[in-house]
Design brief:
Layout: H1 2-27, E1 29-32, E2 35-39, E3 42-44, H2 47-55, E4 59-62, H3 66-71, E5 78-79, H4 85-91, E6 97-101, H5 112-122, E7 127-131, H6 134-139
Parallel strand pairs: 3-7, 4-5, 4-6, 6-7
Antiparallel strand pairs: 1-2
Length: about 150
């Protein structure tokens, strides 16, 4: 009976810890209305800095809808709309540089890349960057890749 109670208590504690870890990412965001203006532990960057990081081998994660990714994305970028720990671990190690991007520039209701970066920071990723201007990448005549 003691083992059964101990097992139940451990299961309960693990459930609570998991629930807290899943919501902690939200506390990393600084909001202005409905717009994320900063993510603690991550760096917002512009397209030029994103290109530099790309050229240096940083991993890129496109958090736009899959159909947007298919129309064209940053070369080598992975499509991952809702980053989970398991999915991120398949793409990038926690100590590697990772850049999340979307196309929400100017949209107060869309914070996809900032939310994804907050989730990554909460999961222990240390070199996290984000930007919201995927169109700016192509407007700067940087290369775009399309799936075949």
């Amino acid at each position: 009976m003691k083992h059964l109670i101990l097992g139940f208590v451990l299961l309960l504690l693990a459930s609570v810890a998991t629930a807290q870890a899943q919501t902690d990412w939200q506390t990393l965001q600084t909001m202005s209305g409905s717009d994320v203006i900063a993510v603690e532990g991550a760096t917002e960057i512009d397209v030029s800095t994103a290109k530099t990081l790309h050229d240096q081998g940083a991993r890129f994660v496109d958090v736009r809808k899959r159909r947007s990714w298919k129309r064209g994305h940053i070369p080598g970028a992975s499509s991952l709309r809702y980053p989970t720990e398991a999915a991120l671990m398949e793409i990038v190690d926690k100590n590697e540089e990772v850049v999340f991007y979307c196309n929400c520039a100017g949209s107060a209701s869309c914070n996809l890349s900032s939310k994804a970066s907050a989730k990554a920071v909460a999961l222990g990723y240390q070199n996290v960057y984000w930007f919201q201007n995927a169109e700016g990448w192509s407007e700067a005549d940087y290369p775009i890749e399309k799936p075949e």
